[in-house]
């Protein structure tokens, strides 16, 4: 890979640091994340300009409590307690 970049919640893309053959990292300060769901996207760009993408969604709750959002239809992504 020529470079790998990441983006949090649709913000600006920022570079990641190579730590191994196929390993990259970057700081992600949990204290700056609001309670709720977040989306982390990454993209790897090779020397020829080819791009590979991946995204994950994760939840943050620094209160020390966690109440799972129930799986119902239609899908519920929050409750009145979040």
Please tell me about this protein's structure.
The structure is a single chain. By secondary structure, the protein is mostly beta strands. It has one domain (3-60). Helix content is 0%, strand content 43%. The chain is built from no helices and six strands. The protein has a four-stranded antiparallel sheet with strand order 2-1-5-6, with no helix packed on it. It starts with a strand and ends in a 22-residue tail after the last strand. The mean pLDDT is 85.
What level of helicity do the residues show? under 10%
Mind describing the biggest β-sheet?
4 strands, antiparallel
Rg to the nearest angstrom? 16 Å
Strand content: 35-45%
| C-alpha geometry | elongated
> Count of helices?
0
- Assembly of the depicted chains: single chain
> Looking across the biggest beta sheet, what order are the strands in?
2-1-5-6
Class of secondary structure makeup: mainly beta
The whole-number mean of residue pLDDT values reads 85
Please mark out the parts with pLDDT under 50 across 5 or more consecutive residues, or reply none.
Answer: none
Order of helices and strands: EEEEEE
């Amino acid at each position: 890979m020529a470079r790998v970049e990441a983006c949090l919640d649709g913000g600006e893309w920022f570079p990641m640091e190579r730590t191994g053959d196929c390993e990259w990292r970057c700081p992600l300060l949990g204290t700056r994340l609001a309670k709720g769901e977040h989306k982390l996207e990454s993209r790897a760009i090779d020397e020829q300009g080819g791009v590979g993408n991946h995204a994950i969604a994760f939840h943050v709750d620094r209160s020390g409590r966690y109440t799972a959002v129930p799986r119902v239809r239609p899908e519920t992504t929050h409750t009145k307690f979040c």
